[in-house]
Amino acid sequence: MSIYQVLNPATGEVVETYPTATDEQIVDAQERSAAAFSSWSETTVEERAAILTKVADIYGERADELAEIINMEMGKAIPEAKGEIKLCQLIYRYFADHAAKFMEDEQLRGTSEDEEAFVRRRPVGSLLGIMPWNFPYYQVARFAAPNLALGNTILLKHAPQDPKSSAVMEEIFHEAGVPKDAYINIYATNEQVADIILPSPLNQGVSVTGSERAGSAVAAEAGKNLKKVVLEMGGSDPYVLLDSSDVKKSAKTFFQARMGNTGQACNSPKRMIVMDDIYDEFREELTSLAKSAIPADPTAGDTGLSPLSSPAARERFMEQVDAVKAGGATVLAGGEHYDTPGSYVQPVVFEGVKPGMRGYHEELFGPAFMLFKVGSDEEAVKLANDTPFGLGSAVFSDDLERAERVGSKIEAGMVFLNSPEGSREYLPFGGVKRSGVGRELGPLAMDEFVNKQLIFKKKS
User: Fold this and answer.
1) How much of the chain, in percent, has pLDDT values that exceed 70?
2) In this predicted structure, which of 266-270, 330-334, 368-372, 405-409 has the lowest mean pLDDT?
3) Is position 212 annotated as part of the catalytic site?
4) Beta strand residue intervals within 303-449, DSSP E
5) 3-state secondary structure (DSSP) of residue 394
6) Are 85 and 137 within 8 A, CB to CB?
7) Which of the 8 DSSP states describes residue 441?
């Protein structure tokens, strides 16, 4: 039985299975990807940009079909699925429009008039992308768009529960004009990645989005083989509310941000840090919102409570929730799974999660809310930074200068002020500490898997 399968999390039904690649197929794919680099890298950036624009167009044309696929694969509600597809279109168009500018030579100035130096950005070769299941199209777009624009070639290993969407993405790239061997979808095992791809001199780097455990394992293999890595790992992002003229609205903003993708997002506001003078009102409203969430059909046109991505995801999440409860945290709402065929869980609101408890320093990957009460800006910053992660963060205040002061002290790769966390095609995405290394999206994305080649000229 293939480990790559479509399992509908709303019903628990296995819909389709896909064969795992053989070792010989993986070797062949790596060789073809490396061979394709010589011609793909020599196309002009304008030619590559035109192809990425066509990719964006096809995503728009096939939006309904694409949304239905990931709805089936991981339970993403149709409205959210279509939002993900629109974001992908923006990403492909962004790199199509700006790739030439991002690849311009960077002049270096010295003191001698008879010398000239500049940095030229060149692609490096065949790359491996290892992608997660929570945003099947968007995660691939973050990696593929800038690297195809650069002229790199790609092997793409998607999550085992996303075989259909990964196959359709390969189809779209080829339909748009990416050469067949310049982008190859592979149904590889973890062992094939570690034993075949990363040791190969034909591979020039790997990008991983996933859990801290997965990223650490891949990074260890990559380091052993002297391969460049970009890692986007987990997060336990703080959401700091310093003050609010409308506490109920603030609570609703946090609730909606956390419930996006049913809480299955790395850059999701998992820890709510609230000033003591508004804490009680905030807690009451947030708890009420959590209790009102009920399971909904993810194929419907609304955005009710969707299932977690799989039975395994539900099992992992509930094991975490039960451990937090056993540790002594107070449950204000939820904390159980629904007695349904699908992978539905109740949104859970915790209070009193303390150092040493499960969940305090661990990412809860699902609709879990942890509330913390603080009495000063300094206490809020200390608590926000008391985490091994450093992906995103958000700070809210009616006084923007106050929000900026607090935000400037938070140890995270991204700080959002008076705005929920989110992704934009032009905003660099990535973290510090255990949340990973490197950046995706924005202009920094094209500075990762690139040879910043020094050219020095002596004129006389």
Assistant:
1) 99
2) 266-270
3) no
4) 330-333, 348-351, 368-374, 389-390, 394-396, 416-417, 432-433, 436-437
5) strand
6) yes
7) S
The string of pLDDT tens digits covering residues 70-94 is: 999 999 999 999 999 999 999 999 9
- Decide if 268 contacts 421 (C-beta within 8 A): yes
Sequence-distant (6+) residues with CB within 8 A of 106 are: 118, 119, 121
Of all helices (H) and strands (E), which one includes residue 434?
none
Cα 210 from Cα 215, distance rounded (Å): 6
Taking the CA atoms of residue 251, residue 257, residue 263 and residue 269 in that order, the dihedral angle to the nearest 10 degrees is -80
Which of 266, 285, 421, 448 is flagged as catalytic? 266
For residue 61, what are the contacts with CB-CB under 8 A and spacing of at least 6? none
Of 418, 417, 421, nearest in space to 407 by CA:
417
Nearest-angstrom CA–CA distance, 245 and 264: 30
Determine if the pTM surpasses 0.85.
Answer: yes
Gap between the Cα atoms of 50 and 208, Å rounded: 27
- 136 has a pLDDT exceeding 80: yes
- The pLDDT value given to residue 302: 65
Q: What does the DSSP assignment read for 143-202?
A: HHHHHHHHT-EEEEE--TT-HHHHHHHHHHHHHHT--TTTEEE----HHHIIIIITT-TT
Helix (H, G, I), strand (E, B) or coil at 432: strand
Tokens (6 digits) for 12: 């628990």
* pLDDT value, residue 2: 56
Among 80, 232, 363, 425, the one annotated catalytic: 232
Cβ proximity of 94 and 425 under 8 Å? yes
34-55 pLDDT, tens digit each: 999 999 999 999 999 999 999 9
Residue 118 in this model has a pLDDT that exceeds 80:
yes
232 is catalytic: yes
113 pLDDT band, cuts 50/70/90, is confident
